[in-house]
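Backbone-to-sequence.
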């Protein structure tokens, strides 16, 4: 079927009409178990009643004003984020890429106001994904995203993931900070070990540079803590957040200490839609649920159960599954077959999973997932792996 849409996506030929919790329903009534969550966006599942009520109540009052006037919902959400994190200041935007752009600008501005404008370079890591803007594709450094878009934006020095010596060598008098995802998402669900995150914090303190975390995918409860870096017992100077914080509504944020944010004064940065009343209503509703007593413990419990069931799946299908990765409900299967083939097989079994780098498929269910739904996921993944094995056997026989 032809479409006027720009063909930048290879879309599956399936249309979903509605969603209910972890389920997506097609126009024909077919039910798919959604373990993609819109790529870690629908943190509380589809049509969560508390989010629906918050959005519809706000929609009947006011949608947009601009940031030229006060927005009480934004002030409330910022206060709640500050109270629950390392941060002193919050800037709201619309997406992860915008949050990363804001974080990069903030780090550069920090050194400029300290009298060192030459300190603008940021060290990043191979396999990272930070967004699709010109600056964030340069930060990610992946050739497939950079190709054809002209000279790479200056100011990013990339080092191999886990290479401590290369990291130290990359830091110069021009370095402003280090940018890293506590768990690489697009890069193949690769967690940074807690001791390495602690080492990065110590290195930044030693060198007088900023630690910038990209928690766009790993944040807002996804790993069983409010933010993934909490497992390491450290705090960043700047953090980019998006995806799950809006529960499906476009919302991003830059969180920072007062020290790191000191250069971001009136007129230095802005947004038309960021922090609008609709987004703030939904963001506050998400925090109502995620910060409720016992919720993160539930995520941790379901994550452990999922990991156990996935280990069982790997043992049942060693020709298909090589390794189980991740933390909490940010999990991945490293495969011995093309991840695109597994994604299709899962979809044939009426389940949504998300391909990633390093031949991995991501499993990113809603944080509200139940034990019964974990069991259903196991059955569908088992069916997908069995179907792939049957095809492998058929090829061998031929």
């Amino acid at each position: 079927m032809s479409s006027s849409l720009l063909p930048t996506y290879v879309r599956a030929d399936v249309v979903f009409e509605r969603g209910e919790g972890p389920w997506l329903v097609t126009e024909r009534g077919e039910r798919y178990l959604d373990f993609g969550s819109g790529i870690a966006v629908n943190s509380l599942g589809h049509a969560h009643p508390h989010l629906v009520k918050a959005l519809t109540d706000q929609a009947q009052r006011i949608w947009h004003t601009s940031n030229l006037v006060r927005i009480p919902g934004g002030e409330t959400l910022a206060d709640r984020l500050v109270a629950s994190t390392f941060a002193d200041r919050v800037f709201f935007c619309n997406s992860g890429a915008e949050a990363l752009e804001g974080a990069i600008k903030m780090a550069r501005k920090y050194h400029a106001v300290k009298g060192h404008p030459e300190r603008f370079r940021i060290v990043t890591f191979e396999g990272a994904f930070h967004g699709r803007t010109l600056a964030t594709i340069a930060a990610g450094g992946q050739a497939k995203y950079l190709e054809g878009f002209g000279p790479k934006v200056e100011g990013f020095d990339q080092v191999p993931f886990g290479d401590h010596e290369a990291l130290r060598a990359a830091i110069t008098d021009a370095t402003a900070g280090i940018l890293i995802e506590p768990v690489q998402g697009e890069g193949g669900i690769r967690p940074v070990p807690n001791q390495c995150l602690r080492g990065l914090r110590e290195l930044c303190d030693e060198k007088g540079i900023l630690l910038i975390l990209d928690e766009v995918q790993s944040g807002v409860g996804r790993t069983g803590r409010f933010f993934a870096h909490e497992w390491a017992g450290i705090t960043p100077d700047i953090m980019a957040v998006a995806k799950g914080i809006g529960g499906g509504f476009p919302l991003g944020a830059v969180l920072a200490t007062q020290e790191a944010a000191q250069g971001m004064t009136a007129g230095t940065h802005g947004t038309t839609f960021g922090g609008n009343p609709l987004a703030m209503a939904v963001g506050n509703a998400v925090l109502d649920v995620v910060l409720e007593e016992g919720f993160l413990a539930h995520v941790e419990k379901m994550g452990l159960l999922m990991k156990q069931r996935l280990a069982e799946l790997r043992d049942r299908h060693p020709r298909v599954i090589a390794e189980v990765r991740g933390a909490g409900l940010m999990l991945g299967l490293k495969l011995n077959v093309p991840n695109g083939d597994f994604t299709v097989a899962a979809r044939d079994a009426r389940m949504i999973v998300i391909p990633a780098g390093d031949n991995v498929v991501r499993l990113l269910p809603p944080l509200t997932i139940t034990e019964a739904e974990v069991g259903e996921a196991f059955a569908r993944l088992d069916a997908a792996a069995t179907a792939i094995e049957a095809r492998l056997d058929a090829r061998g026989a031929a």
